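Section 4.2 – Deliverable D4.2 (structural model, holo form)

The reporting period included a commitment to supply a predicted holo structure for the target in complex with glutamic acid. Inputs used:
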Amino acid sequence: MIPTFRFAPSPNGHLHLGHACSALLNADLARAAGGRFLLRIEDIDEARCRPEYEAAITEDLAWLGLAWETPVRRQSEHFSDYRAALAKLDAMGVLYPAFESRAEILRLVAAREEAGPWPRDPDGAPLYPGDAKAMPAAERADRIARSEPHVLRLDLAAALARLGAEAARLSWQERGAGPAGETDPVGPTVTARPELWGDVVLARKDVPASYHLAVVIDDAAQGITEVVRGRDLFAATSIHRVLQALLGLPAPVYRHHRLILDADGKKLSKSTRATGLRELRAAGTTPADIRRLIEPAGDLVHP
Ligand code: GLU
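Output (structure tokens):
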């Protein structure tokens, strides 16, 4: 199997030093392994993603000196793949529609919190507080027939029950830094903890996918053997492993690299101009300077 790496940005803003770190690390590791380096445009969020950001992404990556295989996979062109996966999961009985709006969810969480703290997922969002899973089939069918907006959620308990003994053994191979940015690799094997996430959304109201669903389908479709990404996605790997197991998809090896942080120790955001690649380039920074700037995240294989 040819080692196959990918960089998977979302075209909802300009790239910053954190993206440069991921992209360079993927490309360097692919070169060192004699493998392939692919680009994937994660544009399922049609309200926020724009073609001009995609154009800017490819321009910035080329400026960094990167070359990737074509054609580039664009998620918005593969909705039928995600629909097929959803149909498979539905047939397994591990999906359910949930009709609450974001505002209703916040109200439900607030009501639950009157009795004590309500659990949050590793990203800090409250676990799903609703009871759509218990909705009578007739009501569900009726609301869907009336085209009521809804998301599709993973019934995690049903999913783990379906996986049986495999659920308890779910894990992944990790070559990277771990959730707290440890200096040494936390691997080689990390036990999955999907229960931290609860019933995640797998299809949004207006898109037949969510990040979690699309990423596992695409990594498999592109034959990705090594997923190299920031450690902000370390915990999400637990959900990705559940979906891979349910859908019979191969598990890549993962490397979650440390993040580039701003002066306040926070994750970079797409709106922080000081670390944007375009701004740095305009100020005379060279690609070699960028490599020096991202050195604190470590792990870089120098060509
Ligand atoms: N599109 C995601 C991001 O820009 C990356 C997803 C991944 O690497 O799994 O954060």
